[in-house]
Hints:
Elements lengths: L5 H13 L2 H5 L1 E3 L2 E3 L2 H5 L8 H44 L10 E6 L2 E6 L3 E4 H4 E6 L13 E5 L4 E2 L2 E2 L5 E4 L3 H6 L6 E4 L1 E2 L7 E3 L8 E2 L3 E6 L5 H9 L1 H10 L1 E3 L2 E3 L2 H5 L2 E4 L2 H43 L6
Parallel strand pairs: 7-14
Antiparallel strand pairs: 1-2, 3-4, 5-18, 6-15, 7-10, 8-9, 11-13, 11-15, 12-17, 16-17
Amino acid sequence: xxxxxxxxxxxxxxxxxxxGYFQRICSNHVxxxxxxxRKLLETxxxxxxxxxxxxxxxxxxxxxxxxxxxxxxxxxxxxxTSRFLRSLLSTLVGGNIRTGNCPTRxxxxxxxxxxxxxxxxxxxxxxxxxxxxxxxxxxTSANSDEPVIPVLRMGNIQDGxxxxxxxxxxxQSHPDVLKLRLRPGDLLFNRTNSAELxxxxxxxxxGDPDATFASYLIRCRFSPSVLPxxxxxxxxxxxxxxxxxxxxxxxxxxxxxxxxxxxxxxLPVPPVEEQRTLADVFAEAQRGVRRTIEAVTNERxxxxxxxxxxxxxxxxGRLT
Length: 320
């Protein structure tokens, strides 16, 4: 109509949302937040003349479209780095085989054939593991009045590394702590999760905080012939994911790979020095990808902040 431009109103309401206005006036019912119609109609808005509204909308749409394009580019960069890491991992785990360059051996997993150098040893994971055991099922807490130890859970394994951001704890006096305290080189395997995430794993390393682990994880300790970093690379590779898909069971939206199936997983094993070289290459690539993701995250945060500032300026008469 001749009073308000709908685009101007929509952008102003979005600006208020970005400032937390609607979060402050909403009510919660059974884990659902809602804003009453009465409160929405009572919301105070800025209403300049229609021509000024349209001028502001035109400027905002131009700037916001540029910011959206930048955000899409950042998201694309993150996707490409993740795709690169998966491709590199599969290449390294496959021994970077080139047809005719070296003799190979074939391992069939499900309906897929996977080629590995014939010089590598291949056996069930249990042949190379000193122990494979489940974590504690004891009830954890967010804090305690007595000394505690972190309990790593399935959410603490992210992109092949341990994430220490969100933790639960057990008292250090709990009997499971002594038996299940982690040692550097322990590989943690997520045995229950969604079909896409079950089987993710990470290595507990020297310098990580003192910790134990929960029952949805399985700990593998390997003999000196297998580096835990190498075993983790195999499990996280396309070959490892194919094996996990072939043996996992599913119930009520959850997938499971138990200890028996993990022990039976075929594990291609190069000589230790070759494992170390391949693991070092992959670790360096991981560090590069993490730096890229951090940069993308920071730039995305700056973009979001700029968008909020731009909207705030538009609806306070400071947009030029």
